[in-house]
Design goal:
Layout (H helix, E strand, L loop, with lengths): L1 H10 L1 H7 L2 E6 L8 H17 L6 E8 L5 E7 L30 H11 L3 E6 L5 E6 L10
Parallel strand pairs: 1-2
Antiparallel strand pairs: 2-3, 3-5, 4-5
Helix pairs in contact: 1-3, 3-4
Length: 149
């Protein structure tokens, strides 16, 4: 998990430096039941969104837990502009751009995350506040067997 996170940081290093991003990473797990390239894609999309859609100095917090008798979970939170809850029914299922003025992009990032996590039998959701900031929650099955790419 930490190796994949470091690869994502290296890949986003220019964006991180340009925006003076503060990233905190804490993981209770060394591995997750995901192909590393899939985890890389999920991390990249969620972290880069938190950086791009932000009017302040971006702060990204990543926490990976192994919940007793439950599935492993990932939370990625930011202090960005937030996401309106009215989009919750479509945000992971449709190529959508909700703030085209702030940053370039295709609008496929959250849909890709959803598709990857669903492939593992997991779920992805978010909470956002009116004052800004969003936390994405990824939950993976605890009994996941190997998945082929």
């Amino acid at each position: 998990v930490e190796e994949v996170f470091q690869q994502v940081k290296d890949n986003l290093s220019e964006l991180i430096a340009d925006k003076d991003v503060d990233i905190n990473f804490h993981s209770q797990l060394e591995v997750l039941p995901m192909i590393p390239s899939h985890l890389f894609q999920v991390f990249t999309n969620l972290i880069s969104n938190g950086i791009k859609y932000n009017v302040n100095r971006p702060e990204i917090n990543i926490e990976i837990k192994n919940n007793p008798n439950q599935a492993p979970s990932i939370s990625i939170s930011d202090n960005g502009i937030g996401l309106d809850e009215k989009y919750k029914h479509i945000i992971f299922h449709k190529s959508s751009r909700f703030n085209k003025e702030m940053a370039p992009g295709s609008g496929f990032g959250l849909m890709i995350c959803h598709n990857i996590v669903s492939k593992y039998g997991g779920s992805i959701d978010y909470q956002s506040s009116n004052s800004g900031g969003t936390t994405f929650f990824v939950t993976l099955p605890s009994n996941q067997e190997s998945v082929t790419s």
